[in-house]
Amino acid sequence: MSNPNMIGLIHNEVMKIASKKRLAVVIVILVILVSMFTYAQYREIQEKIEKQGTLDWRVELQQEIVDRQNRLASSGIQDEFRQFLEFDLKQKQYYLDNDINPNYPGAPTFIRIFFSQGITLVLPLFIIIIMADIVSGEYNDGTIKTLLSRPVKRWKILMAKWLTVLLYTSMLMAATVIVCYGVSGIVLGYDGWTAPILTGFQASASGEFSTEYIHTLPMWEYLLMSVGLAWVVTAVVGTISIMISVLVKNTATGIGAMMAVLIAGTLLSSIGSSWTSSKYLVNLNFDLINYLEGQAPPIEGMSLPFSLTILGIWAAACLAVAFWNFTQKDMY
Amino acid sequence: MSLKPTVQLKNVTKIIGKKTIIDNISFEIYPGEVFGFLGPNGAGKTTTIRMLVGLIKPTSGKINICGFDVRKQFVQAMQRLGSIVENPELYKYLSGRENLQIFARMLPDVDEERIQEVIDLVDLTARIDDQVRTYSLGMRQRLGIAQALLGRPDVLILDEPTNGLDPMGIKALRTFIRKLVDDTGLSVLVSSHILSEIELLADRVAIMSHGKIVKVGSVSDLVGALSSGVDWRVSDSFRALAIFKESPYVQAAELYDDHTIHTLMDEGRTSILNEALMKAGIEVWTIERKVQTLEDLFISLTGGDHIV
Ligand SMILES: Nc1ncnc2c1ncn2[C@@H]1O[C@H](COP(=O)(O)OP(=O)(O)OP(=O)(O)O)[C@@H](O)[C@H]1O
Ligand SMILES: [Mg+2]
């Protein structure tokens, strides 16, 4: 292999990040989080056994269905919430009718829930912790001068940094799966990889429920899809944070800006669907696993292909801005 | 010189905003010479060096390193150049060796053996596996030089390399650069705002002020041009000035006070002028050969810019 090559440049970036021990920090946070969630689950199970005497998911599901029905019967609930409840009710009924446990106990289900909950905030946050200073750190330390006066074209250096973001996104996904599995399994048991799970519910914001495309998947296949979608979202967040890192040249400001993007996304999608063109915002399209679960999207007209397209366009635009800026600008 | 220049600037201008930071400068550096780049704070030395290493684009003009255009053939140009811009900026959280390994991967054909070679060259063997954050300034400086030399460059650029070094360190650096040039025949560009330092180290000097190069020449030429200052103490300096101004032997005459005139003149003609003054009835009290320093030249060239 002749130097300088892309592998060598990525090796350099990995060396810099590894010595800052960011991935280790993230793993420690993960272990703490997952331990807490696992313990909470454990308490919940204990409580149910105490109440019901047994742990029968059919009884539990039936109870939940009754609960939904009661709530729907009561007056004064908002239309949007009514739709959500109706859809949820139908989904649960479908599980019960087909004799499939939606929450098969075990570590794989824990992983499923963790990814489903973590895709919009926790996982993107982790990639920001690891990657936010990949460019701005070089400005802050002044090393950008040494780096960019070496015989390697600037676009190659940024490309290596971006590929390193993708590499660490993959490592983050792997670490999350491993930690979730290892820690939650202690309490919940390690099996359930092949438990069936339903996907393909059609849900529109208007609340139509269709069973046309529903099919069962083994858990491992469903998880693979979940992790894949989480990878996409995390990689897009990493790409945006590279652009911000190039533009603002200051790590603290960059992290602040990224946090604003993430939190604004969660806020906007909970505020609701009146502002329909907000569906073109990148941060409203982070909840991809939602589509697997068949929940109603925050805004009508959103679907998995739609969200993937929007994410792709935003990522490409951010890359274009980052590369243009990084290769053209004077470095002081 | 018949050798091809290793560094060549042609009519380089840099405008930032509306300010002309570098104003149409040109110079060349040849193999085997130490080129001093001298100017007060804010003269534009670092800006020029940033353009040389491709960090910023000149607004107009051309820069070549060993015949390669820094903008169009960036990679080839940078393969022949090693530099420290302002401070030796290295990864503080890595060890010295890891730093060198990182920059080695950005160069063609630099193996572990070469890395060890430059470590020995700058005499950092004992501390090379420690984190750079634990290094003293002098050690960082040496690591920076090691980094710059990794790729066996034809041009070495050091921006104010003596900043923060003690007199011993400065002397050691001087010896090091001299030996490096003698051994490898590379070109070195050293910027500084300290005259005495450049005087001792450089073969040729460019003096820069307000973004312009006011003078380029060998150190000996510059020193030679200086030795002909003569100060006169006379009874009436106003009338004497008129006589000096008319004389073909006086290049410059300047009134200092009622009785003193500074001149730049041919020393051999002092007695002729003395006679002329006496004939005009002006008493000559003292004639003093003024040994000017580069400092004086600098001040006269840069219009009294502050210099250390
Ligand atoms: N990014 C910038 N924007 C505007 N002006 C700048 C910029 N960088 C440098 N300058 C100006 O350019 C001039 C030259 O600066 P430069 O750093 O090249 O000086 P220098 O000769 O290296 O000085 P010193 O001896 O202090 O290092 C200064 O007046 C400075 O204010
Ligand atoms: Mg400077």
TrEMBL record, chain A:
Bilayer-crossing regions: 23-42, 113-136, 157-184, 222-248, 255-275, 306-326
GO molecular function: ABC-type transporter activity
GO CC field: plasma membrane
Keyword set includes Transmembrane: yes
Keywords, comma-separated and alphabetical: Membrane, Transmembrane, Transmembrane helix
Tree of life domain: Bacteria
Name of a matching Pfam family: ABC2_membrane_2
PANTHER family: BACITRACIN TRANSPORT PERMEASE PROTEIN BCRB, INTEGRAL MEMBRANE PROTEIN-RELATED
Name under which the protein is recorded: ABC-2 type transport system permease protein
Species classification: Bacteria, Bacillati, Bacillota, Bacilli, Bacillales
From TrEMBL, chain B:
Family per similarity comment: Belongs to the ABC transporter superfamily.
Lineage top rank: taxon: Bacteria
Keyword tags: ATP-binding, Nucleotide-binding, Transport
Species: Cytobacillus firmus (Bacillus firmus)
Signal peptide: none
InterPro entries noted in UniProt: AAA+_ATPase (IPR003593), ABC_transporter-like_ATP-bd (IPR003439), ABC_transporter-like_CS (IPR017871), P-loop_NTPase (IPR027417)
Lineage: Bacteria, Bacillati, Bacillota, Bacilli, Bacillales
MF GO annotations: ATP binding; ATP hydrolysis activity
SMART domains: AAA
Residues of the ABC transporter domain: 7-235
Name of the featured protein: ABC-2 type transport system ATP-binding protein
